[in-house]
């Protein structure tokens, strides 16, 4: 059997798929007013029988205990996004980092079953919009565009 290509942004190489991918993508942008913002993408695995709401609640509790000044902005919002109508939970929060307020909007997406990347059906992606300032309309729209156009890989 031929070894498949493994693709990353910068290129690809020959390798079988890893047993687990915990890479983190940190995408750095500037809006038209030259304000910096980041969109981070993390990967995680739900516990057996765990729903994404319970996962988010556990993550919130962990952040509450680790980050100074942590507070939720609103409540957990459940939705479906993108062409695949994937289940998501969104949360907005803020905390202090070196005395400065950090703002985040996080979207936890439950991925569909995939023979290679989600054979247990418990994998999630966490998209985070992150800024040290209030979010601009441009930043919010860009984040919404990314979330709403996300398409998971198809399984063979």
Give a nutshell description of this structure:
With 156 residues, the protein is α+β, with helices and mostly antiparallel strands.
Write the layout of secondary structure elements.
Blueprint: E1 5-8, E2 11-14, E3 25-30, E4 36-45, H1 52-66, E5 71-72, E6 77-81, E7 86-97, E8 100-110, E9 123-131, H2 137-149
Antiparallel strand pairs: 1-2, 3-4, 4-9, 5-7, 6-7, 7-8, 8-9
Biggest sheet details: 7 strands, antiparallel
State Rg: 17 Å
Order of SSEs = EEEEHEEEEEH
User: What is the β-strand count?
Assistant: 9
Report on this structure:
The chain has helices spanning 52-66, 137-149, and strands at residues 5-8, 11-14, 25-30, 36-45, 71-72, 77-81, 86-97, 100-110, 123-131. It has 156 residues and is of the alpha+beta class. Strands 3, 4, 5, 6, 7, 8 and 9 form a 7-stranded antiparallel sheet that branches. Strands 1-2 form a two-stranded antiparallel ribbon. Strand 7 (86-97) and strand 8 (100-110) form a beta hairpin. The radius of gyration is 17 Å and the shape is globular.
């Amino acid at each position: 059997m031929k070894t498949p290509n493994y693709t990353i942004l910068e290129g690809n190489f020959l390798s079988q798929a890893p047993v687990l991918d915990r890479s983190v993508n940190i995408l750095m942008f500037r809006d038209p007013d030259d304000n910096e913002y980041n969109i981070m993408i993390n990967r995680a695995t739900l516990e057996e029988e765990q729903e994404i709401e319970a996962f988010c609640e556990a993550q919130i509790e962990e952040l509450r205990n680790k980050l100074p000044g942590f507070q939720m902005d609103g409540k957990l919002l459940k939705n479906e996004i993108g062409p695949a109508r994937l289940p998501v939970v969104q949360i907005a929060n803020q905390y202090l980092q070196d005395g400065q307020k950090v703002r985040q909007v996080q979207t936890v997406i439950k991925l569909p079953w995939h023979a290679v990347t989600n054979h247990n059906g418990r994998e999630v992606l966490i998209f985070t919009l992150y800024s040290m300032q209030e979010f601009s309309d441009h930043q919010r729209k860009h984040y919404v565009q990314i979330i709403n156009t996300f398409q998971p890989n198809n399984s063979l």
